[in-house]
Amino acid sequence: MPKSEHQIGVFAAIFAYLIWGILPLYWKLLEPVSAGEVLAHRIVWSLVFMILILAFKKQLRSSWKEFIYIFTHIRSAVAIILASCFITLNWFVFIWAVNSDRVVEASLGYYINPLINVLLAMVFLKERFTRWQGISIGLAFIGVAVMTIFYGVIPWAALILAVSFGLYGLIKKMVKTGAMIGLTIETLLMAPFALLFLTWFYKQPENSSSFGSVHAETTWLLMGAGAVTAIPLLLFAIGAKRISFSLIGFLQYMAPTIMLLIGVFLYNEPFSRIQLTAFIFIWVGLFIFSTSKTTVFKKLTSKIFKSNSKQEPKAS
């Protein structure tokens, strides 16, 4: 691959993770709006944005053909419906977490996600994980257990974010669709429910519409939810095609790290020693997970094990 193509891939992936990392800032602007209302608008305007993109790229006809193909095959139809449900759940919990002052917990979810992916691959794809991957998962489990034991509450928002995004990724791996067409179909499936919800929501006497000329700023923010959803996904698709999977694996930790910093330093969310201890277990686990397949890590661990075996006393 030409060097320029690789550079394009790196910059595209970095910008994708930067946008995902600072998304809490965007959803925080919509804090007065309920999470359900924001989610419904996000689905509708994501669909509108994707249709405009596909029309601009003259891919509407091919997208329609792919839609027909998917829904004439039961396995792929069920899979894409499940994928749309899981990503919708993920979006809702993330928006709710941000606007409930749980940005730190949201970041925890996306730190755990790569390790959840390993477990899902083991269960559903029958992949075997290595000893070091097992240690990584164990350290993450200890981190979550530390928070649960000391606070008496399971960080369920983080776990739902990690598991829902993991299941979404697993399904997307099993059903091959393009990033743009996949997001279009997923939002298309959920759009009728989103529109029905908004119609019902705005008819309730206790709910005033956040959308319209009276709330111009909020209206533009709700409409912009489509762009902030689709743009990082498209950038990620550009990056994933041009750079190695291992580099993508390292870059993916940018987003939760930015979220964590935003939660602690910008929104002054509590970050106690207990939370720091839990995060350290998870960070160490992620470091081992991310480096365990590299040549340097393998050489280092082999030297350590060899030196330990030499120091063991011989049986008399």
TrEMBL record:
Compartments it resides in: Cell membrane
Membrane-spanning residues: 7-27, 39-56, 77-96, 108-125, 132-150, 156-171, 178-200, 220-240, 247-267, 273-290
Chain ranges of the EamA domain: 8-148, 157-290
Family: Belongs to the EamA transporter family.
InterPro entries named among the record's database cross-references: EamA_dom (IPR000620), EmrE-like (IPR037185), RarD (IPR004626)
Protein name from the UniProt record: Transporter
Domain of life (superkingdom): Bacteria
Membrane topology value: Multi-pass membrane protein
Cross-referenced PANTHER family: ACYL-MALONYL CONDENSING ENZYME-RELATED, SOLUTE CARRIER FAMILY 35 MEMBER G2-RELATED
Keyword terms of this UniProt record: Cell membrane, Membrane, Transmembrane, Transmembrane helix, Transport
Top-level taxonomy: Bacteria, Bacillati, Bacillota, Bacilli, Bacillales
Gene source species: Halalkalibacter okhensis
GO cellular component, one term: plasma membrane
Pfam families in the cross-refs: EamA
SUPFAM superfamilies noted in UniProt: Multidrug resistance efflux transporter EmrE
